[in-house]
Design a protein that fits this description.
188 residues; mainly alpha
């Protein structure tokens, strides 16, 4: 049987519908990505608190703050960017399964392999261009253009690098699982 692992227990399919074995690398990488995903989840609570404080300050006390408005956008961006890789690990990304549900597991695994390879190329391109973008901002000690805005603009830009490194890690993690399913987990 092609999709049986060396273990006696059959694999369970995740939300994507693919039954993939785990690997030592995938378990370790998924723990790292999940930690960042949990951190991103905590940021949503902080974001809500910042929004409430900003609304109360503006409409009750008539004192708005550019810094608080920028903080809202920065927290949203950081939470979103850190959540991308977490979404990949938990298989909560959008998939179009209209055709794929009719394919065999093996065909779906091959499609997954090529899709992950494409995702890794995309991640590498983004990382390649985001590192100088961040580094230039850091060297210039870039600050907000708005009076009263946040300092350290490089900090938010660093999350472009972080997010796509984590997404690449999540993609490699899943790629090792697909590779194991395709090439090392089937018996003759």
């Amino acid at each position: 049987m092609k999709n049986m692992t060396h273990n006696a227990a059959p694999l369970e399919a995740g939300p994507s519908g693919l039954a993939l074995p785990t690997t030592a690398f995938s378990r370790a990488a998924d723990r790292v990505v999940t930690w960042f995903g949990e951190l991103a989840s905590a940021l949503w609570l902080i974001l809500v608190l910042v929004i409430v404080i900003q609304v109360v300050a503006r409409y009750v006390f008539g004192a708005g703050s550019i810094m608080m408005e920028e903080l809202q956008w920065h927290l949203y961006a950081i939470g979103f960017m850190l959540g991308i890789s977490f979404t990949e690990v938990k298989e909560r990304n959008v998939r179009i399964d209209v055709l794929a549900e009719r394919f065999t597991q093996r065909t779906r695994q091959w499609i997954e392999l090529f899709g992950l390879a494409g995702l890794l190329v995309f991640c590498c391109v983004v990382i390649w261009y985001s590192i100088p973008f961040f580094w230039s901002s850091y060297q210039l000690n870039e600050v907000s253009a708005a009076a009263g805005g946040l300092p350290y603009r490089w900090f938010i830009k660093s999350f472009l690098v972080t997010a796509f490194v984590l997404l690449a890690l999540a993609a490699v993690s899943r790629l090792t699982r697909v590779w194991a399913a395709l090439f090392t987990t089937h018996n003759a």
